[in-house]
Here is the input.
Amino acid sequence: MGRAVAVIGTGQTKHGRRDDLSYPDLVREAVKKVFEDAGITLKDVDGVVYGSMPSMMEGVAYNHFYFADALRVVGKPLLRTETCGSTGQSVAHTAIHWVASGMADVVLAVASEKEHEGDAQATMMTILEPFLQVVIGGAPLAFSLQSREWMGYYHIDDDKAREAASIVSVDSHNGGLANPFAHIRVQLTKEDVSTAPIITYPVRLYDVCPVSDGACAVIFASEEKAKKICKKPAWVKGMGFRGEEYFIGDSNKAVWQSTIEASKEAYKEAGITNPLKELDVAEVYNPFSYQELMFLECLGMCPPGEAPDYVIKGTFSPGGELPCDPSGGVLCCNPIGAAGLIRVAEAALQVTGKAGEHQVEGAKLALSHAMGGAEQFNGITILGSEL
Amino acid sequence: MQKVGIVEVAQSAGTESPLSLMEFTYKPVKEVLDKVGLKRDEVDMYILASTDVFHSGMSCANAFDWDASGAFMKPASREEGDAITAFVYGCMPIMEGRYDTVLVVGLIKGSENPENDTLTSFVADPFYSRPVGIQETTAAAMQMRLYLQRYGITEEQCAKVVAKNLGNALFNPYAHIKKRVSVDDVLNSERICDPLKALECAPKSEGVCAMLLASEEKAKKLTDKPVWFKGWGSSMDTFYLGDRDLLDTQLKTAAASAYKMAGVSNPRKEIDVAEICEPYAFQELLWCEQLGLCAQGQGGKLVDSGVTQITGDLPVNPSGGVLAMNPYVARGLYRVAEATLQIKGKAGEHQVDGKVNTALAHSTYGFCGQWQGVVILGG
Amino acid sequence: MAEQKEKPRKVASMGMVPYEMALGPTWTRFFEGFKEKKILGTKCRKCGRILVPARPFCPRCFEPMEEWVEVAQEGTVVTWSYVNYTYFGVTPDMIPVIGATIKLDGVDCGTGMWTQIGGFDIKDFELVTKKVKVGAKVRAVWRRKRQGNFRDIDYWKIIE
Here is the structure.
């Protein structure tokens, strides 16, 4: 599979509402931090991969041009990868392939979002072609439809799903409190979550991710370079990416094939046969609390239809068998294009023991994941402390 | 690093199509699969290139494009930006030894989008550049004026590029613009953005280009004449026009990297044919200089010499180039496809004479060529 | 870097960009069907699945889908959601709506995002949760005057 690749540094902005900075300066903040973390200089970097959501959300088209200086890419090659919400994972994958191919030894991956400058929902509605799918509801509609499809498919009653989703939300928000980068840092109870205003039933206010500004930068290096310049590399153990059909009714979204197959490829490469037992932590993409329940099943962390049971008994909570989203996840912080890369950065922090207050003790193997489109794409990257 | 071969290519024509983008994209992708004799599912990976703002107003272009590109439930990704990047990305998993076959597709329907200038005005930052009307054409016009003044390049020399390329395009079944023009026609065309004239600016075309890449072993099984990926170089310039010397571009850096990787030490002698991205006629001359195909400031003399004619020693844009066919995002992949056809000897009526061993494909986008990429292919 | 002495400044700007997309022969024919109160699907000659809306090709088999069939206008609710918020382009008078995915009888996919349930007082949320269920049977209700576009189906009605 080509040569081994590792994460040798990460950088994140303080995510949230960043009216204090221009968009290029926001990108600059993350890039500055990743160079400091990796302890390398500009001349060590062979190329840059950048990603964000589409132009309508950014307010500037092809914003990688605008960010040339902030990305420190002047005089170097740049690739731009974009797969909607899963962009962060796809950006990481491009960087990994680039290094593994031998055409670069060190690649900087950056993804960013300044959502307060545009309108996220309006942009996402233009994913739908304007002939037939002219609907009201935005991303919350798509994901609520999926949640109820899943509940209907497995005959999970509303109350049980509601309880499990509320636990996911509470756990994630507690994670946010322990993560200095997270956008939303509030204490919530299950009661708060279950009775919040309805957005797209059954999804309520605290079941939904915030609108966030934020940037993330991750540096990938070849085995030789990583061993030379990094004390604690986070090794890429496996990756996978799949996309389903464009029309969301074409595939069963409860038995979510793209998640299942993408994770299978990643697990196979990583030599993982029992994710629940072998993974120490999972940064699962959870812009919607209900959706995490589906991901837990389709990522093979619990049997199909049983995620609520496992969540209710604490399997995926702090201290549980497989803590999920100790960073607060996407529920606490969603600069959409960057969210998938933040999951990679958080996985790297976990397996290198650098996650501070939200560190999962002894974590050695971490899964990061992101989803894109209207339930169409899923990308996974698994990082480990051992080669 | 495994070798990567281009097995087969397919192109759509550039004229406006009544098909939906989905139907339009499907055809060349199916054509490549049929030519190669592979089922969609038998290809290991798919890389798409398209751009949301040039994508019929649909965001997250990968969502809509996925089905027609053949990517359903396959490892896949999408490059946002010129499709030559999809080609390069497509080579990577094969070089790694991870996959054996990758299908690369660049797609756009120019007829569905507003003027390129409207869209490129959104590339300009909203504080300094957009309010004063900077977009790709106004930026290029400034670059052209500097080019004419600094090196004494003449407007006639720039116009010769148009006459040459549109003349070549008459023999390219896929070209959009099929019109013989003279140097005088070009010089007399409207000065839309002085010194740029209307006929010196690329049109707005449809374009879907698909190609199958394969590992050495697989490529040799699938075709008699694989075309080998020899080298790639790419480089970004800084954003604000005032921060740059518009004539000293990052194409030099990109070309140097590509030549180094491909083992090309004398491009003028070793490159047999070049497909260059010239959305503004003068840029063909400037890019030739920056690519080292002639000395600095000598681009005008190069076109005068006839060397870059289709019958010349180093034909440039035998396909007609971007001046004849400008599917904005896909155009870089078309350059790779055309270079491939030349090496294979399959360029039909616009095939250059003599054996083509080494070909260069170039692409650029962004103001005054802020992003530059060069690919070297070999027989 | 400059010091921020007052509230951070912002520049507001709005861009409007026109697009004109070709419907293409497949969807032109699909919407002609709407004019005649018909829902048309296409059948894949390889896997035999019938998909709605009609498609030019089967996304899985990648073969052209050239066999056209008229499909049922009744089906079962696969999933639904009650939309009760606004964003740019959506005003309070446009909500609530009930989005749904419907599996039409005889069709091998769900309708995805383009079907909405209506025909009763959907502002009454309690009533909605009583009437709308996964598995409920629904039927298309057409507008009297049809243009051959998505508006031709007014809503989908729950058949008690």
